[in-house]
Description:
Blueprint: H1 2-16, H2 21-33, E1 51-52, E2 58-62, H3 70-73, H4 81-92, E3 113-117, H5 130-147, E4 153-157, H6 159-169, E5 180-183, E6 189-193, H7 198-202, H8 208-224
Parallel strand pairs: 2-3, 2-4, 4-6
Antiparallel strand pairs: 1-3, 5-6
Amino acid sequence: RLLLMMLDKLNEKVIQCKLCPRLSEYIDFIGQTKVKRFKNENYWSKPIPSYGDPKASLLIIGLAPAAHGCNRTGRIFTGDSSGDWLAKALFETGFASKTTSISKNDGYILKDAYVTAVVKCATPQNIPSASEISNCSQYLQTEIKLLESTTKVVITLGKLAFDNYCKIYGLQKLVFGHKVTYPLELGKILISYYHPSRRNKNNGTLTWKMWIDVFKIAKSVIIDHP
């Protein structure tokens, strides 16, 4: 219960964060202008809190919220095609209660998994600056430390997530690649993986079979190391 309170307190701090003026202005602008298909929705337009089971064995680290995905819904990896893929894969491998994550109050619950991101605000062209990454790293570092006692598998989605996880833990000479696995201290496993971006899916860089395989690997590691 204490851990849950600490994570909740951290998430409240994230939601109130204004450290990056460019990003604060951008997410507010997106929420005001919207896009046609979501013109009748109220956008969240604040930094996105992390989400999941506070006693998770699986930690998933993404890049940043999508402008019309979780910047709209208020829940990480929710409301866009990347979120759809993640929700379905987590359900099919036993980490989620439903196949879809649509909104904050849709009954979607993560089981033994926790999802976070390097940057908590949507970014123009999906490219955060070095200073924005640095500002946000305090939150990611705190999350990782709070969750590390139960974490067994860490999946980093994309090179930025991989590099930042390695930086937080001082892991040197590890190289990003797709489906590359690194053993860590205390029996933990780090898996470097492609991000399920629309581009990676559309050009065939990441197929559904490739995508769900990483969660099957994570599940087997967790089962084999209770």
